[in-house]
Amino acid sequence: MLIEERQQTILKLLESQSSVQIADLRDQFDVSKMTIRRDLDQLERKGLLRRVHGGAVNTRGSSYEPPYPSREPVNRDKKERIGQAAADLVQDGDSITLDIGTTTLEMTRHLQKKNNLTLITPSLHIANALSQQPNIRLILTGGILRSGELSLIGNLAERVFEDFFVDKLFLGIGCIDISAGLTEFNLEDALVKKAMLKSAKEVIVLADASKFEQIAFASVSTIDVISRIVTDSSLDESVRLMLEARDIEVILA
User: Fold this and answer.
1) Same domain, yes or no: 54 and 83
2) Residue 111 per-residue DSSP state
3) For residues 49 and 39, what is the distance between their CA atoms, to the nearest angstrom?
């Protein structure tokens, strides 16, 4: 198991049980105590947990958003497959909104062979990835820059979506829950997403399976706005059936 995978597993354990013990982690991962201590020390320096005697405890609340650099390598193979499957839903001549996020960013690599696209985004990461593509008319929303995330927020970013109606919105999201709906860690990003939803004929959510049955701080919408969800094959079968019962197409990449 890679270091990043092991550390992400530790964080998931902390989310479900609030604390972990070094001895238990050593047995689970079949590595030395020193390796686990290094993992915990690195995660503590990033502010993702707090070290205590013999282990660590969770310091993350529902408004905590893991930093972009720490999210980018997580589930990368799954995100690549989701990005490819999502890009396959784009037709030549489409107008689309591409939301911020590491999964939506993966989609950009598969858009370069599409023709005559109009693309709106509040993400500088995405704008940079597509800036040299002559076949894509790129519209950047403007607004206040969130450092680290490189997303554009605020009234300017929201108002752009009052003037456009796109064929498809590809929405990245923090968490998905059948009852709570779509939620985000950051309120300002959630407000921009709300504006996006009003301007799209079709809403397609991109999310790996780890984001399901989770709730973050700020509400974005009920799940009823979703036409399709592109996720990975590890999605729990019961969740898939509940989504399909609400007439949401689930695409497993």
Assistant:
1) no
2) S
3) 11
